[in-house]
Amino acid sequence: MKIGFDNDKYLKMQSEHIRERINQFGNKLYLEFGGKLFDDYHASRVLPGFEPDSKLRMLMQLSDQAEIVIVISAADIDKNKVRGDLGITYDEDVLRLMEVFTERGLYVGSVCITQYSGQESADAFKKRLEKLGIKVYVLYLIPGYPNNTSFIVSDEGYGKNDYIETTRPLVVITAPGPGSGKMATCLSQLYHEYKRGVKAGYAKFETFPIWNIPLKHPVNLAYEAATADLNDVNMIDPFHLEAYGETTINYNRDVEVFPVLQAMFEKIMGECPYKSPTDMALIWPVTASLMMKSARKLHVRRSSADIIRAWKLWFAEQAAKKKFIRLELLLKQAHVTIEERKVVPAALKREEETGAPAAAMELPDGRIVTGKTSELLGASSALLLNALKELAGIEHDKHVISPEALKPIQALKTEYLGSKNPRPHSDETLIALSISAADNEDAKLALQQIPKLKGCQVHTSVLLSQVDILEFRKLGVELTCEPKSEHAKKLQK
After folding, report:
1. How far is residue 337's CA from residue 373's CA, in Å, rounded to a whole number?
2. 3-state secondary structure 112-159
3. Angstrom distance (rounded) from CA 92 to CA 95
4. Tens digit of pLDDT for each residue in 449-477?
5. Whole-number percent of the chain with pLDDT over 70
6. How open is the CA angle 93-253-267, to the nearest 5 degrees?
7. Contacts of residue 124, Cβ cutoff 8 Å, sequence gap at least 6
């Protein structure tokens, strides 16, 4: 893969900037992490060379100074809110995050439940964590938040919240997803720290948008596409322009809330340490320097592909009409068309040729592989096998799974498990491939190619089952589907 981002430089520079910011605030910094600490595939798609776990690896360089507080909203617990990328609830993701961080040598100090107003589900989750020996703190739902600053910054507002006991200079505040209450947790802690005589500080760490590239740069447009569900919009930071006469790029939520933050800082600290939302950030001042100028075309191409992917995802969810329209506008601003994501026309063409559902994948070197529906395999399973054979250099007409081995699976599904679809799902196909690898060298060679599928673009001509969608997610494949079911297609015939 071509590289367009200096990941090693990123790790070194960002850890140094964090250390500087800790020293600025008397050796206590609450750092709100926007986006994902790891598995940040959006950033890695747009900035080739940026590793999905880059932010986590950067924190590992500060492991002796850092502790992590994981934040979750009581409202999200009560609603059983699910992470769209993993298909698990936010409360289960808290436990997953704790395990991942601990395995990497990072210290997780506690969990904080925010926006609490007596939810029984939140109480049950708190008890569950405490039985596991995990410290749990509670932040209450504050009336008038965030605008009623006089009440919020008082003993009846932030003062009512639990004080989170921390032991290290850098306190990283992260969460399973947006809207969890990370900023409120940071500011509540500042209130309590200042009441205790500790002059702690607050900063925000974001990956996007990048402050020193043009507003409509493809990388910034791709950020907007990826966050269409949050209504994030890149904009010029008016506070930074007024304070320094310098044009910088921020996004609407931070710009809109900054006057409120200023007022809170002034009430807590006596003065606001920042003149603009850009000042608060820890990443923007250096990110553009990490984007290799020689790779500008690569950034443009990858960013455009990500906008198209986002459009396709929302196209399949036509109920989200506003987001769909917005993404169409982003496509126009980026001067790209759907067809530029090569897998889309390839899958549709294959469907037209065969008269049945089809799928297409772009391999790391740009080759396009397709899969069609047959009596033995569905399009997704066929695509996976064809891609693995292509990567392994195995002739297309060679079987890596014997047809005789697939027929008992079909019989099991239909005769004993009550399935109407006899074709193995993609997970069942890969299991069959692994069994074949025991005595088939081609199957063994094909199986070894699976890691190479990570990051590949895939499009299917019909909506997939949840089983197939989750399997593609596990493989790290970037999947989109046409907004039509295989059943509906059959009815049209």
Report:
1. 27
2. EEEEECCCHHHHHHHHHHHHCCCCEEEEECCCCCCCCHHHHCCCCCHH
3. 5
4. 999 998 899 999 998 888 898 899 889 88
5. 79
6. 95
7. none
Residue whose token pair is 């099991």: 412
Q: Which of 52-56, 166-170, 314-318, 319-323 has the highest mean pLDDT?
A: 166-170
Rounded CA gap, 228 and 313, in Å? 11
Region of 133 (left: φ > 0; alpha: ψ -120 to 50; beta: rest) is left
Query: Residue 304 contacts by C-beta under 8 Å, 6 or more apart in sequence?
Result: 218, 222, 334, 336, 340
By C-alpha distance, which of 218, 210, 288 is closest to 46? 218
Query: Any bridge partners for residue 170, and if so which?
Result: 29, 66
Q: Band the pLDDT of 216: cuts 50, 70, 90.
A: confident
User: What's the CA gap between 37 and 53, in Å, rounded?
Assistant: 7
* Cβ contacts of 180 within 8 Å, gap of 6 or more: 71, 72, 73, 76, 90, 114
Residue type, 165: E
Q: Tell which residue, 177, 185, 181, 187, has the closest CA to residue 149.
A: 187
Whole-angstrom distance, CA of residue 200 vs CA of residue 487: 59
Burial 406-440, CB ≥16 within 10 A → b, else e: beebbeebeeeeeeeebbbbbbbbbebbeebbeeb
**Coil, strand or helix at 413:** helix
Domains, the chain, in order of start with CATH, read: 7-205 (3.10.630.10), 342-492 (3.40.140.40)
CA dist list (Å): 463 to 101, 310, 379, 468: 35, 16, 11, 10
Q: Which region among 334-338, 383-387, 459-463, 489-493 has the lowest average model confidence (pLDDT)? A: 489-493
How do residues 59-110 score in pLDDT, each as one tens digit? 999 999 999 999 999 999 999 998 876 778 999 999 999 999 999 999 999 9
Contacts of 486 (CB under 8 A, 6+ apart): 357, 462, 463
Positive or negative, the CA dihedral 2, 8, 13, 14 is positive
Residue 318: CB atoms within 10 Å = 9
Tens digits of residue pLDDT in 320-361: 455 555 556 656 666 666 677 889 899 999 999 999 999 999
Q: Are 235 and 313 in contact (CB under 8 A)?
A: no
Residue 173's beta-bridge partner residues?
Answer: 32, 69
Considering only the C-alpha atoms of the chain, give the largest distance between any 2 of them, rounded to a whole number of Å. Answer: 77
Which one, of 341, 316, 335, 322, lies nearest residue 482 by Cα? 316
